[in-house]
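Subject: Sanity check before I submit

Could someone independently write out the structure tokens for this chain? I want to compare against mine line by line before I put it in a report. The sequence has 300 residues.
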Amino acid sequence: MKVSYPAFSASMAPVLIGIEKGYYAEEGLDIQMVNAGGGASTPSLIAGEVPYTTSAGSAISAIINGAPLKVIYTTEDRPGYELWAVPPDIKTVADIKGKTVGIQTRGDTNEIAMNLFLRSQGMPVNSVIYAAMGSEQNKLAAMQNGSVPLALIGASTAHQYQTSGGTGHLLVDLKKEVHMVYTGLATSDKELAQNRDRAKRFLRATIKGRIYWKMFKEETIQILGKYNHLSHDANELDYDDDYPALTADGTVSADIQQADTAVRAQIIGVNPPPTDKIYDYSVLQEVNRELQASGWQPQR
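---
Independent answer below. Compare away.
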């Protein structure tokens, strides 16, 4: 079963743990990870090329535009991005006007988070120019060679940049400035209608991975390193950076859903749909109840 992902960051750990610890195999699922940013993975999800994407935040914009998709699990409620400036003369938020910002793909959570931040600063969303880099490593390379003055990157990429001799600086930590529905899982209405049992098995294995993630830091860091080949320090920084942003049970409140939907709809230029057209946590809630009742605990 194909599952798309934008990068092997700490927020992806529940799925990677599910693979490594055999939780998906126990559910009869053979997971194939497909690298694609949110702007690319959402069309693949709509077309039925992949049944699940971890770029749930990007899927929301498509749903607001009428795509028959649902967010079924939310990992975090804050974006895991930092806005880094390469030239020393970019010192304030006002200095970014008219500058190019490296993101992963157009329409993904990089762009949405940046738009939400700009709006919070009273700046129009077209204050900056977006350059789609395709991957975190491409953004890193662009910063290193100076081909972009600004980039939205994760904590582990920032660590790589600094340790490789990068002389740029952190301008804004978006995790402290923006609240939004961030990483998680999205699927199609068709998948939920025709393969609800598979959705439940997939979510059960993922939530087991999430529980392991929260209980075993060192083991999680080692699993991340196996997939992203980053240093222990970089992945530990990413883990510590993500942990405070985790949702309590894989859902976000109705208030956050409504606020997030309203802002995205305004950016897109459409009327916001009811949140029940965007979110369906029913399978997740069923899984959570059953795991809690069973007293399931992960083993190292």
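---
OP: Matches mine. For the report I'm noting this point. Residues 69 and 189 are 5 Å apart (CA to CA).
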